[in-house]
Amino acid sequence: MENIQDQIQALQTSVRRQRFAIVALAIVALAGLLGKGSTTGDATFDTITCKEWKVVDKDGKGRIIARTTADGDAATVWYDQNGKLRHLVATMRDGSATMTMFDYFEKSRFSASTAANGDAGMIWSDTNETARISCSTTSQGHAVLGWLDKYGKSRFTAATMSDGIVVYPTKSGD
């Protein structure tokens, strides 16, 4: 008979523990549901470490995405409300960096870049992505500004060389 009494007491203890666990679980679940229903929130962090970071709009569409690649490149891209690429900033493992802005039709309209050797340049393009205005500086100290026609052919160029010599504006008539 004692054996049955011991078993009943063990069952009662087990039921009390289970009740406590169920109540605790219900409280945690309720707190989670209440917290999840909140539409606003703020957080402060000293450091976030990740391979990709994404800002989404109210519909969950990625609008700003920053990521790195295994080979050392890193980029941040911005998309408009229609999911179209509008801005790209990237650094490459070779030491170069670029920034490109795109129009509504995802055509490259402006880009600025630097090369690992110190050269830098900017290009303004037309709606066909043909370079129309370009300017650059080189690590040797040259500076060049040029205008191109709708076919990408140079039509007017002016430059200063590292030794101070000015290359007078040239005009191509063909």
Report on this model:
With 174 residues, this protein is of the alpha+beta class. Among the domains are: 1-32; 84-171, Outer Surface Protein A, domain 3, CATH 3.90.930.1. The protein starts with a helix and ends with a strand. A hairpin with a 5-residue loop joins strand 5 (97-102) and strand 6. It is built from one helix and eleven strands, in the order H-E-E-E-E-E-E-E-E-E-E-E. It has an eleven-stranded antiparallel beta sheet with strand order 1-2-3-4-5-6-7-8-9-10-11, with no helix packed on it. The protein has one helix spanning 2-36, and strands at residues 52-56, 62-68, 74-79, 85-91, 97-102, 108-114, 120-125, 131-137, 143-148, 154-160, 166-171. The longest helix is centred in the first third of the chain and has 35 residues, at 2-36.
